[in-house]
Amino acid sequence: MKRSKDGVSRKPLILFLIAIMMFAGPLGNVLLGKGMKQVGSLWVWPPPKLIATGIKIFGTGSIWLGIASLMIFIVAYMLALSLADYSYVQPVSSFAYGVVALLGHVMLGEYVSWLRCAGITVISMGVFIVSRTKPQTTEHF
Fold first, then answer.
1. Suppose 28 and one of 23, 54, 70, 127 were both cysteines; which one would form an S-S bond, judging by CB atoms 3.0 to 4.6 Å apart?
2. Which residue, among 72, 71, 100, 87, has the nearest Cα to 130 in the 3D structure?
3. Distance CA 66, CA 29 (A)
């Protein structure tokens, strides 16, 4: 594995950023889903109802927490991509599928079937194989 100019391995930092991505992204999406279920049915026409819809959406705490969580995800994603190849970051971050199923079950009360769990397990095994490779194969100038 390549080391930075000061001789320190970047893999722990890359894995830390990917861990943030794995939890912040799914958490943000679950919070947005929860917030939108709290808001209920929305109207976008006529225009006065669109304004009321916006007020309803952005007055919901879960929506704001979801937005904040997704912003954390984006920052961690950009930082990870600045340190490692896309072909490494994207597959390894797919461990988030397991987090999505867990949060969906715990926070939204969704049923996660055994078949879905088996699919997530297969994906996770593939991700484990990818995670064993070098995170950066290209030179940075």
1. 70
2. 87
3. 6
Query: CA 14, 117, 121 angle in degrees (round to 5)?
Result: 45
Q: Is the pLDDT of residue 111 over 50?
A: yes
Amino acid at 26: P
From the list 35, 28, 19, 33, the residue with the least C-alpha distance to 96 is 19
Q: Which amino acid is at 140?
A: H
Burial 40-78 (b: 16+ CB within 10 A, else e): eeeeeeeeeeeeebeeeeeebebbebbeebbebbeebbe
CA angle 78, 80, 86 (to 5 degrees): 90
